[in-house]
TrEMBL record:
Residues 455-577 form the Response regulatory domain. Gene3D superfamilies: 1.10.287.130, 3.40.50.2300, Histidine kinase-like ATPase, C-terminal domain (3.30.565.10). Its EC number is 2.7.13.3. This is histidine kinase. GO terms for molecular function: phosphorelay sensor kinase activity. The chain crosses the membrane at residues 20-38, 44-68, 80-105, 111-129, 134-151, 157-176.
Length: 578
C-alpha cells in the first residue's frame, strides 16, 4: 500500500470512529421498539434483546474512549480496522436479529419490522460512507434474517416483500458505492493538494535560499572587488596631477574608462542590494515633470544623435507626487534602454494625463520584445539581443532596478511590445494639485579653500586604500592620518593629539567593515568620545549585504559606497567641513 493510500485509509477510519457516539442514540430507538412490541412478544425476550443493545452501546463508548486515548496517533495500525469491523458486524447482527426474533407477529408489526430495517439500512449509507468493510459488515447481517423469514413465509405477499427487500438492499449498495467514491476522492484530493502545497512551499524555500546564496555571493564578491577598485580609482585621481603628455593622458583615460565601467556594474549590484534590504527611503515631493525631462534631454540628446535616431521629449508641466530622484533614475534606465536597442527611427518620451495620475511613456521603434520574454527582462542579468555580453549594451540590471524601484514607490509599471516594431513602457505617477517644491542639490559645489589644511583621519584595513586616499588628500592640501584599525588610531591620538595638543581632527573617514570585532560605527563613537567633540564623519563601505546596509543606515552617518570617484570624495569632504 503506497503512502497516499495509507493516508486515505487512516482518514476513513478517523471519520467512522468519530461517528461512534451516535450509536448511543440507538438506545432510544431500541426502547421505543420494545415498547411497541410489548403486547405481542414476551417481556423476557424483549428485555434480553434490549440488554444486548445496551451492551453494544457500552462497547461503542469504550471503543470511542480508547480511540481518543491512543488511537488518534496510531490509527494507521491494522488493529483499528479489525476493532471497527468486529464492532459493526456485532451491531448489524444485533439489529438484524429483530427480523427473526420479532418476525412472528401480526401483519402490522411485521411491516413495522420491515420499515425499521429498511430505514436503518438507509441510515448506514451516510453513517458508514467513509469505510466500506464496515458498511458491509453492518448491512448484510442487518438484512439477511429478515429476507430469510420473508422468503420462507407461507403467504405470497411476504415472499414478494422479500424480493422488494433484496432490491432495496441492492439499491442501497449502489448508492453507497457512489457516495463512498465521492468521499474517497475528496480525501484523496485533499491529501494531494496538501502534498502539492508542501512541495510548493519547499520549492519556494529552496528558491529563497538560492536567491539568498546568490545575494550573499554577490555581496561578498562586490565587497572584495570594491576594495582594490576603490584604491585604483584614488590612485588614478592622484596620478592625473602628474600626467601631462598626450600619450600618457590617453592611457590614463583608458584606465579611468575601465574603472568607470567596473564601478557602474558594482553600483548596479549595490542598488539591487539596497532595494532588497529596504534601506532606500523614498523622499516624497511635489514637483513638475519638466524638471526631470530637462535633465534627461540634455543627457541623451548627444547619444541619440550619435546613433542617428530621433529623440523627442514632449514638454510636460504636470505636477506629480513621488520621489523625484528615484523617478529620474527609473526614466534614465528606460530611456537608455530605448536608445540602446533602437538602431533606426525614433524614441519618444511623453506624458498622458488621466483623472488621478499621469502615465509617463517611453516609446521606441527598436527591436521589440517577444511576448514570452517580456517577464524575463525584469530579471537581473537577463539581456535580450546581447548574447555576446557586450558591455556597451548594458549589464542587464537596469530594468530589474526599475521594477524594484516602482514597487518601492508604489508606481504601476507596464510594458507593451511587438517584435520588430518597438516597445512602449509606461510609469503611472500620482498627480498633485499642490505647488511644486523647489529642489536643492544634496552636495554643495566644491570649494578648495574649505578643505585646505584640514586634518582628515582615515581608518581602513586595506593598505592600498590608505596609501591612495592619503596621497589624494595630500594633493588637495589636506593633512591625512591613516590607520589600519581603531586601536592604533586611539593610541596615536592619545599620545600625539590629546596629550600634546598638536592638531585638531576635522573629519573622520572610516571603513565600515574592519578586521577584528570593531566596525566603523564603533570607531567613530570611540574617537568622538576621546576627543570630546562631535567630529564630522562618514562611513566608506564596499559591503552590499542586506544586514550591513541596514546597520549602516540605522547609524545615521553619511555613507559613501566604494569605489568613490575623486570628485565625489571631495564634495563629501567639503560638505563635512563646511
Amino acid at each position: 500500500m503506497n503512502s497516499l493510500q495509507c493516508q486515505i485509509t487512516a482518514e476513513q477510519l478517523r471519520a467512522v470512529y468519530r461517528q461512534l457516539p451516535t450509536i448511543v442514540s440507538a438506545v432510544a430507538g431500541a426502547g421505543m421498539l420494545v415498547f411497541i412490541l410489548r403486547d405481542v412478544h414476551s417481556s423476557a425476550l424483549l428485555f434480553s434483546w434490549l440488554a444486548i443493545v445496551l451492551l453494544n452501546c457500552l462497547a461503542a463508548v469504550l471503543l470511542y474512549l480508547y480511540y481518543i486515548k491512543v488511537g488518534r496517533d496510531s490509527i494507521s495500525q491494522p488493529c483499528w480496522k479489525t476493532y471497527f469491523f468486529i464492532f459493526t458486524l456485532c451491531t448489524g447482527t444485533i439489529w438484524g436479529s429483530i427480523g427473526m426474533l420479532f418476525y412472528f407477529a401480526p401483519t402490522e408489526y411485521k411491516l413495522l419490522i420491515v420499515v425499521w430495517i429498511w430505514a436503518m439500512g438507509a441510515g448506514m449509507v451516510a453513517l458508514l460512507v467513509a469505510y466500506r468493510p464496515a458498511f458491509y459488515a453492518m448491512l448484510i447481517p442487518l438484512f439477511m434474517p429478515l429476507m430469510f423469514c420473508l422468503a420462507t413465509d407461507e403467504y405470497g405477499f411476504y415472499r414478494g416483500l422479500s424480493v422488494a427487500t433484496f432490491m432495496w438492499l441492492l439499491s442501497l449498495m449502489y448508492f453507497y458505492h457512489g457516495n463512498h467514491k465521492t468521499f474517497t476522492e475528496a480525501i484523496s484530493l485533499r491529501f494531494i493538494n496538501a502534498e502539492l502545497a508542501e512541495d510548493l512551499a519547499r520549492k519556494n524555500k529552496e528558491a529563497e535560499n538560492a536567491n539568498l546564496a546568490k545575494s550573499q555571493f554577490l555581496a561578498a564578491a562586490s565587497h572584495d572587488l570594491r576594495q582594490p577598485l576603490h584604491a585604483q580609482s584614488l590612485f588614478l585621481a592622484e596620478l592625473d596631477h602628474y600626467v601631462d603628455n598626450l600619450k600618457g593622458r590617453r592611457i590614463l583615460g583608458g584606465l579611468e574608462s575601465s574603472v568607470y565601467a567596473m564601478r557602474k556594474l558594482l553600483n548596479a549590484i549595490l542598488d539591487i542590494s539596497k532595494l532588497d534590504a529596504g534601506t532606500i527611503s523614498p523622499s516624497i515631493e511635489v514637483f513638475s515633470i519638466s524638471t526631470i525631462f530637462a535633465n534627461l534631454r540634455s543627457e541623451f540628446e548627444n547619444l541619440a544623435a550619435e546613433k542617428n535616431i530621433i529623440l523627442r521629449m514632449r514638454e510636460c508641466y504636470l505636477v506629480v507626487t513621488t520621489d523625484p530622484v528615484l523617478l529620474e533614475r527609473m526614466l534614465r534606465n528606460l530611456i537608455a534602454n530605448a536608445v540602446r536597442y533602437t538602431s533606426e527611427g525614433k524614441v519618444l518620451v511623453g506624458c498622458r494625463r488621466h483623472k488621478h495620475h499621469v502615465s509617463i511613456q517611453i516609446m521606441d521603434t527598436g527591436i521589440g520584445i517577444p511576448d514570452e520574454k517580456q517577464e524575463d527582462i525584469f530579471t537581473p542579468f537577463i539581456q535580450l539581443g546581447n548574447p555576446e555580453r557586450d558591455r556597451e549594451k548594458g549589464l542587464g540590471l537596469g530594468l530589474s532596478i526599475v521594477q524594484r524601484t516602482a514597487d518601492l514607490l508604489g508606481l504601476t509599471l507596464s510594458l507593451k511590445s511587438t517584435p520588430g516594431k518597438g516597445t512602449v513602457v509606461s510609469i503611472d505617477v500620482p498627480l498633485s494639485n499642490q505647488m511644486p517644491v523647489k529642489r536643492q542639490n544634496d552636495l554643495p559645489a566644491t570649494d578648495e579653500a574649505n578643505i585646505n589644511g584640514k586634518c582628515v583621519l582615515i581608518i581602513d584595513d586595506d593598505s592600498d586604500v590608505r596609501i591612495a586616499m592619503s596621497g589624494l588628500l595630500e594633493s588637495w592640501g589636506c593633512l591625512p592620518l591613516a590607520f589600519s584599525d581603531m586601536q592604533d588610531a586611539l593610541e596615536y591620538i592619545k599620545l600625539e593629539y590629546i596629550n600634546q595638543k598638536k592638531v585638531n581632527i576635522d573629519v573622520i573617514f572610516s571603513d565600515f567593515t574592519l578586521s577584528g570585532n570593531g566596525n566603523g560605527i564603533q570607531v567613530i563613537a570611540e574617537l568622538r568620545a576621546l576627543c570630546g567633540s562631535t567630529i564630522p564623519a562618514a562611513l566608506i563601505t564596499g559591503d552590499t549585504s542586506v544586514e550591513r546596509l541596514q546597520e549602516a543606515k540605522d547609524s545615521n552617518h553619511l555613507i559613501i559606497h566604494k569605489p568613490v570617484l575623486a570628485d565625489e570624495l571631495r564634495a563629501v569632504l567639503n560638505r563635512l567641513v563646511g
